Amino acid sequence: MSEILDDEQAYLKRWYKFAKIHKTIPPPKKDTHLESLCYRIKIRDVYNIPPKKDVQQSIRILLNLYNSNTKEFFGRTYESPFLELNYSQANQQLEHPEVFCYFHLRQIESIQIAAEIVLFEKKDQVIQNRLIIGWCLGEIGQEQKYTLKRGSSRFLISNQTNVETVGQTLWMDIVENKEFTQIRNLVPEGCLCGYGDEVLGVHGYQIIQQLSLMQEQIAYVTSIEILVPTSVDLLISEYLKKYKEIKYKDDGPNDVHFLAKRLVFTFHNGWNYTNTRGLNNFITLEESSFQKSIDNQKIDYKKLTFKGALDVNGIYQEPKLGVFIIQLEYDVEFMVTNLGKQRTTVLCGWLPLVPKSTFEEEFIVGPGRSLSNQVLVDLSDIKYPITISGKINFGSIQSQNLPGPIINQQVFQPMDAPSLVKLPEQGGQQLGMDDDQRKIKQLENTLKQLQQDRQVSATNLAMDFENKLKIDKQKEQEYQKMVETIKKQHEEEIQKILEQYEDLKKMMTDINQTQQQYLTKAQPTSASLLGQQQVLQDQKELEKWRIIESMTSVPRKTFYKTQQQDLMVEAQFGGQALSRGDIAFLSQNGVRELFIQHTDYVENDEIKQKSLQYELADHRQSITVFIQLLSFKPRITMKSKDLEPTVYHYSEESRIPSRLFMIVNFYDFPEYITEPLIYENGFDKSSYTRCLEQSIPFLLIREQFLKTGASYKEPVFKFEIEPSSIGYPKAYKYFCEYLFNKCITIEIWDFDSMMIFGTIRLPLRQLLRQGQDASVVMRKADIIDKEFKKIKGELQVLIKCVGKEDKVTETLDNNSQMKRKVISTKRVEPLHVLEDEEKEIIKQDPNERIKERIKRIRRQEVPNDANTNSTKTLMEITKRKDLSKNAFVHSVIQSHLSDEKVIHPFFGKVEIIELEFRNPYATGQNFVISIDDQEVKCSGIQEIHLIHQPVEWKYYVDLYNHSKPQEFNMIQANQNNFTMFLTAKEKVVLLFKYQTFREVNQEFTELQKTEELFTIKGKQFLTQYSYPRQVAVFINTIEGQCVGGMRIKIFPHNNTIDHVYRFYERDNRQVSIQFPALYGYTVPSPDKKPILFCNNDQLVVEWANEFEIRISLRMPEVNKQTVFYILAYQDTYYKELIANWQIKLTSLAGIGIEVPLGQVQNTKLTVHVEISRQVKFYSSHPICVWFPQPYDQLVNLIPGKINIANLCVRLFTEQIHKVMVTCVDEQSHELVRGWILNISPTVPPISQVFDIQAPRDQMKTYIVKYANKQNNEVLLIFKSSNTQILKLIETRYLFKAQQIQDVTLQIHRVGEMDKAEVKVFIGDEDRSRDTFDCLLFRITYI
Q1: What digits encode the pLDDT tens for the residues 786-805?
Q2: pLDDT computed for residue 91 by the predictor
Q3: Fold (topology level) of 533-553+1057-1146
Q4: Rg, the chain, Cα only
Q5: Domain segments of the chain: what residues?
Q6: Separation CA 1056–CA 1054 (nearest Å)
Q7: Which residue, 49, 190, 44, is CA-closest to 108?
Q8: pTM higher than 0.85, yes or no?
């Protein structure tokens, strides 16, 4: 035994010495939201070192990372091996070995490499002299020759300046290196390691040019038990009292609460923590009291235990050098006078542990610091040590299996945790496989294990049955039932595993079939390209993409057809006329006072036949549309009786917002976001609850009205459309067509959680005035959730359309020269401006002053002084000088074209431009038609095309009744132009088609020069946005003489969106999403599906079925949003646009959790912030995911620290849940962080089975008996997995010790089912895992 201990002591000494040598200074600044980049430093050709006779010369190169902003070194000094200098007979220095070194950093701004050359002179292998030759600073990302400066690089951190150079030079190359990425988690960030360094985990144990990882292992730590003397809590309280006196100058009462006690378990290789989660790999411990006899005395201890298995990956044991690092941490809360509750984490002890199967060790306690330089609490006064014991099982990273069940540990992988990009192969299979590939492998292994367990369990039970039978033959029937139950349970588990396995295989097959179909089409150019499908040319790459990328695809389940159709009808034509009771209720509360002055209106309660032609004939063409949000009524199906906290109410699984805001998409106006809205009749808790229980609508008012006492309270806003100010022809016609064919979309958002609650869509045809001054519509529309799966409530809306005569009534023709703008300059604005009394209240309210100051900073502009104007003028002059002569010549030629056309194209719609041309010659001639569009040269995007294909040309001639040419195939396309032959004096009408799929940039309203924008904004801007510009068309003879043409002035129009789809998915995943196609009144015929086009060529768009669209793409990195458009056309030429849908995909950090049904699973979230914030956490499904105290209240986040929030999860159904969790700043209401939780339930062991026969045609009440197994009084909560079939009359029962009570339940029949199985979960009020039962009710209907 003593020999083993001696070996362990020697092991730890060797590791400690190794770790001390490789200790690093962390980088001065870290951005945890970035991934560190890897770099390689290569130094070669150190020249001009003078030789010496009879002396052997060698050099060493010292490298350091240097921050030029802070003038500090950081990381670790790398010292190269001795490099022998050799000289030729002519004393010419020969080449020496190259030196290479690696490092990784998140931020490289202001970071340089300080290189220093030291010369050693040896004689008879003894160093006689050491001389610093010089130093230099290398720039990251460059290969350059540097001349050394005299002295040492330590001059950089002194006040001295030394720019004198010496004659020696060197070449330094600092470039990115992907090879080092696979081992970067083995060394700390900013740590230099290079040739000759020993790193545990690197193949061969040394840094060489070819880098690869060793075989990684994973450890499962079980049976964890920590014994802590009770005096430790008292010493921590005393420590916090002193801490509070020093930091906060507070000597008040010392009220300390221990929130959580956790154990950190990591692996350290002498350089860094090599496990994925680093010091975030922790578990929360359960606490109980315990007495231990020491020296015939009973000592009080706190026993801290963990019943599951904690996994630690990134373990490398050869050579034997790495150790486990264990830390015991307490989260504590204490009171500070004038500041309230404060929280901190104290470190009680730590220890390095040699890898072994079992361990029992004592913690190292304070005073002092841990390996990670954390301060230890002074526990030197405790008489008895803190001990820890447990077991460790080592396994391959591939299997990750332990004998027996493993409970998921309560950890979350932070964003900055390093990940392995490439792992070595073993047995012909790649270890770094995708999650779904690994899951399939695990399912296969689990399937085999279950089959073996079934045989072993049944055999053991049968043998035990035979032994028991000899003792008591009366138990024969009981044991037979147990054997059958065991067999059935194993069969069910095997069947479930097989179904999961087959589902994954089927998913792969479906996705492979999907990829064989066409990808998203590019922008249409000509009829010859229409209908052609773009496929990947390289079949090997296609196969690789199918296998690797599609494995992580998570397709949404197709909706049930009947339910989907019903919801689509609600979403498209949602809304009913307000009942008389609704109108009386609203009128009684004064919501219609705003419109009393308008008496001449038509109130439309139903969709009637309206005439578009009659509407267009109205002389009142200046339109104002008022929208007033009246009331909000959520749909209530259950309340939170058993859910903490109880101050919230819930609709099904969703939280009902206490404050709302709306996002409105109307015509071509920018997306309008309302101010926060609250409930006038549900402001306090009692009235709020009464409205919910009695199904009374919440009256919506402005929050600003209650805060500041503003003069009006109604949430109303207006849109103004004035054709004279818009400045393009047919403005009134386009708007009337929009009202006739489209719907308005209003999104309802939770202002506190920043989550979307649902959406309504109201048809606008009812707003057509039909000759009247005004038209009023009052509707209540069902709120559909963003997944289109359920109705979550209703919103009552009043919309009024008022017409008046336009300021300018003259007709605007196509060639009008008056000033035109892309869209209306009228902004969407509230009906009233801020009153003076409101401004005065803002001055007095400190919170309002903070918000106002933030708004001013965000809209702050550079002051317009003389210097700024001078600088701007010089920049403009410089940029204009850079314009090419060719562009100038083209602009001069364009100005002489007599024919000018002005178009105002909408997004995605085709504009046809006619050009009439007659052959001016008395003989037949060939003419060349060219389109001079600088956009093609600068961005590569061509949006204007000559229609020359015969079929397409005939289609547009027949559609618009243009004059027909002599032949439709008279135009031939060349590489850059078109050629046509005309006979003497022959006339032809050429048709040009313009169509854009770029969004309009609101910054520019006047014609812009593409070359200048390209110089100022860059190519990316041009590919993303359209803007007013000019295109020229030239018709030349073969000799190059210009005989005709035209100028086309393009003023693009903004989007009119039919619906906005919002989806939240896990980052960096290949996803497949299905959603219903929502149209306005223009619904395509059932026998012909519209042709889909997407302006994002990085994804696949297709019809999933008759009603739904499927998109497949890879999600971007975390916290990024992708916005694109899908357009539906009736024809193959993309002329008849019937729908324009905007898709907004947001990628969030993903967490996968497995939860035993009915039991509470705890996990943690980590949040990194750059500034101090006061935040609150929210869950989209609070019934199954919630935050326990104190994380359900306001939480202070500290910058530069890993902030942790506890999270509880519990499921009652066997469906996979997808839950969104947000962290919102309470002051600015910014979304600080979001997560997507994929929660998979696991079936717990069945405690008892009840077989019940129930009547088919009626409900029946049953009574079952349940016994409290505890020796103390306990309040138990009963939950049914399906309340539609089995409903518990009472859900709470107070049991005394060992008491048996009757539990009353009701059995219902749903549909035409003959059999049903329902589980009832039983747990105590504290949600402890120690008190838990699962009852199975097998119901047969007779």
Answers
A1: 888 778 888 999 999 999 88
A2: 55
A3: Immunoglobulin-like (2.60.40)
A4: 38
A5: 2-194, 217-407, 453-475+484-498, 533-553+1057-1146, 571-604+620-823, 889-1050, 1157-1242, 1248-1341
A6: 7
A7: 190
A8: no
